[in-house]
Amino acid sequence: MDDYPPGCLDHSVPFLLTLGTCTDTPYDAKLSHALKEQAILIRSELPALDSDQARALMRYMQDRDASNSPCNARNETTRKYRFHIKSAERSLLLPPRRARLPDGFEPPSPTSATVLHSPYSPLSPVSPLYPDGLINTDWIRKHQDLIPSILLCFYTLVSDPTLSTLCDNQIKTDVNNIRALLSQSGYKTKLAVVLLSDGTNPASMEGVQERLDVIRRGCNLDAKALFLVPPNESQEELERVAENMLTTLYAVSLEYYRDLGRHARKKRSRGIAPQPTVPPTSGTSQTLSLAGWNVRYDFKTATFAEYRLEMDVALRSYELAYEALLSTEVMELIPSWSPRWNEARLLADIIAIRCIRCLLWNGQHSAASRRWQFHRERIADFVDRRGRGTNNYGWAAWEARWAAVMADLIDKADIPELAPSSGRLYLPPEKSVMGERLQPWELLHHQGYWHRMAARHTQTRRALARTIPESDRQPPSASPASLVAKSAFTYDTYMCPDPYEEYPIDGIGGGVEHGKLIVDRLIRARSEFLKRGQKRLAAEVSLECARELGMAERWEDVIKLLRPLWQDMPFRTEGWIPIIEEMDWLLRRAAYEEDEAELLLMIDWELHSQSFSKRPNWEYNLAKSLEDIETAEKPDIYIRHGQLISPVAASFLFRDEEGKAGQSVHCQLTIRSNAHQGSALLQLSSVQVNFSGGIGTVVLQHEDVDDTRQKHGNIVLSSLTLTTRESGEDDVKSTSAGSDGEKSAVLKGTADLRLPPGQVLVFNLEIPLREPGDAHAESVVVTIDNDEFKLNQSISFAENSSRNLWYISASAVKHIAHQRPLSLHVLPRPPKMEVRSLGWKEQYYTDEPISLEFEIENGEDVEALSKLDVTLFGEKPSSFTVDLPSGESQTSSSIRSEESRLSGAQLGAIASAKSLTIRLHLPPIESSSRHDLTLKVTYFLPTNPGTPISQTAVFQLNIVNPFEASYDLLPRVHPDPWPSVFDPDTVAPLPGPNSPDTPSFIPKGLSQAWCLVTRYASFASEPLRVTEVSVQISPSPLFRCTAVATKHSLPEDGSGRLIQPKTIEQAAFELTAQRATLDERGPAPLDMALTIRWTRAEGGNLEKVNTTTLPIPRFNIFGTEPRVLATVSYRRRGNTKDEGSGGHLVIVLTVTIENASSHFLTFGVSMEPSDEFAFSGPKMTTVNVLPVQRRSVEYRLLPLDQKDEDDNGEKGEHQGWWIRPGLMVRDKYFQKVLRVLPGGEGLRRGEEGLEVWVPGARV
């Protein structure tokens, strides 16, 4: 918008002018000489304030100047005021309200009154608009920079009592003088006063309010127009005072512009055209029509509405002014040759721009874009009909300017939805036009779109300017008058120079720098595109800009602009060859002019490719690229794959998918020249093939050798021999993933590397494989190294299984069915080292130390230097020890919670066909588990010391529990009598040194007997020899318990018994427990464990006895509940000689009732008669049991069915049988039947109750 007159497109902000303060940039009205003679001088007679407080206040106010604030309504709800603030020290000039009469003018009659008008009105002869002009930028500038809405005067309020009255009177006199001058000027500028207290006498500030009232009344000021700044205010307080003052004055300022708008509407409503001061008399001049006056009044109304931020009102008034201006009553009547024509076009542009600004302010973005397009089409139609048409450079210049205006408006609107951070390229339509079908160009795009449009129109302007005939390009002084007149009516010169200035003849003048204008717009567009990630458009614009810079021969700028784009150009991978070619030639010219040797070489290397069109008469010779180029040192260039389109292509192929370490693999390397036919051959210095995995780099050096190669057409086949050496600094560094920058083995060969255009070099290679794993061919680096330069081109291989062509000869190929031709799986070298276990068992047992023996045998033809790695993997593996052949023992370490490892145990050299033995020792393992034992022997052969060979053996170590057991705890009757609570010997002793925890403690509580029956089984896979079975009882402070083995199947001499797998053995233990005191009543927990001592059967060594401890579930003994136990004994009657061998069998059944509680209990004992036996004893009786006592009832049973058993086959006589006595014990208090428990041998609990064993006659 800089092409338009200054100030005509500025945002309308209320104008506030300060008077009476010192400033670094004093206000200057810049009135013309004619107006300055009539201007009204407003001057303050008091000195200007220069205190720190005054400067701080002015600085804060000027920082709040809203002249350059964004033209949007986002902050209007929070912003309290908007001012355009300027500062005058002591005086200012106001333009005259009325213009003077012209010199020598005489009224037509002495009685007629001459009406004077504003010097900015078309009614005044001094105005450039006289007599039929509409409005110009002078009127806009009048209200923006000349006539303030608020005149803010600053004075010092003296606190000295002796001078206060005098100073107050001076302030009143000065303010009244300024008011009188403002009234004399005829303007309605509001006057406000700021008093800054000097603060020299704080005590005199008590009556300051009274002084302020006197000053206000003496100056006839409103209460809102007088402000006091107290002395010694902090910066925060000063800012608060300034905020309150500006907020108050803003309301006054809005009222000022509201009055001006009301006055403009009042004039328009009169409906008549005012008469000029002096009627026009020259030629056919006429005054401004009523329609023209309506345009003027509508424009004023809209401008004053903008000052008040009433954008809707301003938009309506601007639209009325626009339509009236382009109507048949105004602009249609102005001839195109008249200066008023361009003035009307300028006014139409200004109104249209202000309409767009109002729409952007209101957030109507699509409407703003459509309004821009509407004005363009409207003016184009108008110029085609009434002007000089749109096919000339003047119209193209206007279109470029109009596009740039839209970009500037979007910049000033500062739309957050269109900011680069939002990522949007254009804004969606607003809701008011959502239902309409909008064209893409009717949406509001970002600034880059408009800048690029302006650049294109500028290019059109240049193209049309170059079509101007030479006769029209000569200056008027050198052309006939007829040609000058013809040129004036042929070309549209609205806001652009005449043809002789637009595009002058060479040697006459500079003319318009079209290229500079185009580059400026393109650079701005490129910046916007890059901010929003539009890299393609940015690249396209950069290329257009480079063309313009090239035409101007600004080669350094061309390189700066194109080099970043050229280096990382996306068009190469996408195949946009014409774009790349154009950029290459343009950048090559710039590199040649600027002596950029490396850039020049890289471009020439790319232009050698047949992908580009061949330029006629151009010598494609890379060796001559640096002729006439000055270089400080020899260029050394490295070109990445894909960075350029290389004239050399390469491919690689493994013949086999797999190989073995220690062997060789056959492969082919193919290098093809894609250079232009007729170009010089490429003399390659070396070719380097890079691999990832266990294959070293292959380097082929150029050497002129005897031509033993096979040739057929353009195919040249060579078979090369490779030798191994260490990599050096002269090798090109690989950029592949497999390169780690360290020195490694390099395979070197020599070949003829001359590459004419179109030729294919095929190399048969045989590469030795050293390490197992996956290898992959990554890339090849071709190098050209001569006296002038060194160039390295990296080419990455591409997988293409459909074109796996293997050259059998130069004239024959075959297809290799290889899915991944660039990959090779290298299998490990088959090891001949054997690892065997000696005496390995299927199962090992817990609680047993494990010793394992392994034999390692060398089956290689030569000796092997070996080392051993042992890993034990499982759940919480224990550490182990390995005995090496050298006599050294090494212990493993825990790497993780599930792994124990011994690494790098040196075994030394093992001779061919020899073996050695190692032993591995594991400590006893407590629980069943499964472990994986891995032995890995890594060895090296003298014939290939760089290749490790490994043999791995994995063994499954199963550790199981050799025994499992079940347990029964049966009650028994303790043979000793129970202690009595009435016996003083059983009273608990006083606490003393002999406590239950000491060995000398003697328990005196209740005693009970139990029988622990254990049934244990062997779960081993082989027979085990059990030497001892025992019970371990955990000590308790509540009782003392002992265990005695009463029944087992082990020999007494300790030699043990052989237990077969899956067989069950039984052992019984008599337990005797006695409480510490009689005071203990509750149940007591009994913790025990079964201990089995055993050895393996085949060892026979009783010294290596293993102990397996099986925990027994916890039992509770004692208790307060009564317990009924039955015991039985046998007697025979009738044969005195041998009482035990004949006679009648009498069974003595004793029922014992134990009362361990502290209560007196009564029980009823009854015996029911039975057909199976006869009995003697109480059939029904009552038994009273004292606390902590027990009583017994005895029955004698005589079985009655012995004869029946004898008659039935004698079976019962030999084995015996069971009888069921009907014995019942009932607690008489609780009426609860107590269970009678077997208390010894010969009794059991059946389904119907207690059963008694009757032995046979021979038992």
From TrEMBL:
Residues 340-609 form the Trafficking protein particle complex subunit domain. Residues 267-286 are annotated as: Disordered. Residues 638-1255 form the Gryzun putative trafficking through Golgi domain. It comes from the Eukaryota. This is Trafficking protein particle complex subunit 11 domain-containing protein. It comes from Chaetomium thermophilum (strain DSM 1495 / CBS 144.50 / IMI 039719) (Thermochaetoides thermophila). The lineage of its organism: Eukaryota, Fungi, Dikarya, Ascomycota, Pezizomycotina.
